[in-house]
């Protein structure tokens, strides 16, 4: 009996020294590192760190792509920091498009809640997977692969994208090529596009060089 009590006592002692850290709410006042944000002191954490109302309203679609992506990543929603999850809202006006892009840090699961969205991705073997989605449909985009979403119904469309990372990252292919100071000559060499096309796209997207 004494032996059993000693074992139970040792288990409780071990548990006390091996406490699980339940969460790591992002300290947005600290610098972000490749490993993510540092944890806010537990004493400063409140319920508001785990709640967000940022996806209630539609994003502004009066822009060149007629679309808006409203992210709730760790930088906007501190409670998801370190949990390997996040979410974003996608609004597509008629004619709207989210151009070819990648999320280098996570896979994406898209749920359509309004309208019709044609979505697809390209595998590393250059195989194309495309489908027109409607309300209630979901589609997954594997981590790091180029993918896109296009309004396919002529009415405002809405979807919610969940990610397997609190900081999935985003790189839009068109912006990477034509919205910065990458020299036009290099763009032309690497894409086989003529100079007049590259210069036109840079003018539209605000690039130089």
TrEMBL record:
Disulfide bonds join 24-39. Gene3D superfamilies: Jelly Rolls. It holds the Pfam family Cupin_1. PROSITE patterns: GERMIN (PS00725). Oxalate binds at residues 103, 108. Keywords: Apoplast, Disulfide bond, Manganese, Metal-binding, Secreted, Signal. This is Germin-like protein. It comes from the Eukaryota. GO terms for molecular function: manganese ion binding. Mn(2+) binds at residues 101, 103, 108, 147. GO terms for cellular component: apoplast. It comes from Artemisia annua (Sweet wormwood). Residues 53-199 form the Cupin type-1 domain. The keyword ATP-binding does not apply. InterPro entries: Cupin_1, Germin, Germin_Mn-BS, RmlC-like_jellyroll, RmlC_Cupin_sf. Residues 1-18 form the signal peptide.
